[in-house]
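#lab-general

N.A. 3:47 PM
ok so I finally got the sequence cleaned up, no stray characters, all 450 residues accounted for. can someone with queue access submit it? mine expired

B.Y. 3:52 PM
send it over

N.A. 3:53 PM
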Amino acid sequence: MIGIELSRLAYIDIAEIHPHIDNPRKDLGDLNELAESIKAQGIMQNLTVVPRIMGSKTDYPSQDGYTVIIGHRRLAAAKLAGLTDVPCVISNMSPKEQISTMLLENMQRNDLTIYEQAQGFQMMLDFGDSIDDIAEATGFSKSTVRHRVRLLELDQEKFKKATERGGTLQDYIDLEKIKNAKTKNKVLESIGTSDFKWKLKQAIEDEARPERKAALIKELEEFAKRVKESKGLSYERAFYGFDKNDWKKPKDADKAEYFFTVDDYSITLYKKEPKQSPKKLTAAEKSFKERESKYKELTRQAYESRYEFIYEFNAAKQYIKTIQAFALKGLLCYRAADVDKVLDLLKIEKPAYETNGYRKKAGRDLINDKFLTSPEQVLLAAIYCSYDDKRSNGYGSCRDWEKKIIRDDHNESLDELYDMLIELGYELSDEEQSLRDGTHELFANIQANK
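B.Y. 4:20 PM
back already:
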């Protein structure tokens, strides 16, 4: 074999040709149709092989024969078709050139999964190529190459299963927003399901919560004292999710005595009222407060999920009949859409007018201008805002005096809003569905201890 002239065409015994152990494409797919075509017409395109003594970076048990560089599917189908020899171009390539050639060949045909691309890029890096080299050779952007290589940091079995479920590169890029590796691999299990965006948002929220919590505590500590219980104090307000946008310093902060307590999902602000008799929360009251905090957090997250769906929606023309039907219902039954909110959904910068009336008029003018080029998208945004969806819009009522979270049966507006979103392609997470149908465990009533 060593004396064979390189870069020439030859018919080679199929038994002497072996698959490349570093071929990026692991799954060759269904070979039956190709095998039937080869039986009828023969192999229409030559295989590209290298003498096995040149091999790859991994040693072979034997150095006899040839290794396929281009044509793995044709080789497997030819064996299935019963051929004894196949036409090959015998070439001379270094191990690095072999990997690069196989990677590019498969990518040009869109034959590689995201997982296989990531492995191929990593092999090129192992051979000494830089990110710039790979980007130039493959046509992918440098950021795309980096994103794909970082995918190999994920649990590989979970990654492969997510890819089989239809996971996209954007899904994996979104996954990088999660910092903790263990959490990232847990959310990876939901890629390709309707729960993915929900669990992604929940994980990001969980990671961001400690930072927001610490920042809010720092601001409260400027005028209030942290305490373990609210004995002898008057309730002022609670901060759910530790959102600083929901925060406003009390006007009498420099004069009155303020205190605050902290739990997993909320911070509660109190004010000293000397004349009031001290009150200690019962076990049932504490349990209710925890459930109430969790319920409000989930309801807020469900709102943000619906809002984000409209924000990112780009198939309004496809669903124009659905949008028009809900437009009539929404605009006739509910109050007028908030202009600032519509501008935000349409990604239009709000006009910088101080007087509220002029600002709203200017905002409506901008919306009308946008309607000339994107009527469907503008109509959708206006319809959504007419339903007055907000962070507290949910299916339950938190009754502090009863220590219960009661499932409401009359939120027809939210039901209709969900119906529209589902027709547009929105997928409810399991937790959203249980909030909607009233089966979520948070709706379980807890009787106060006597």
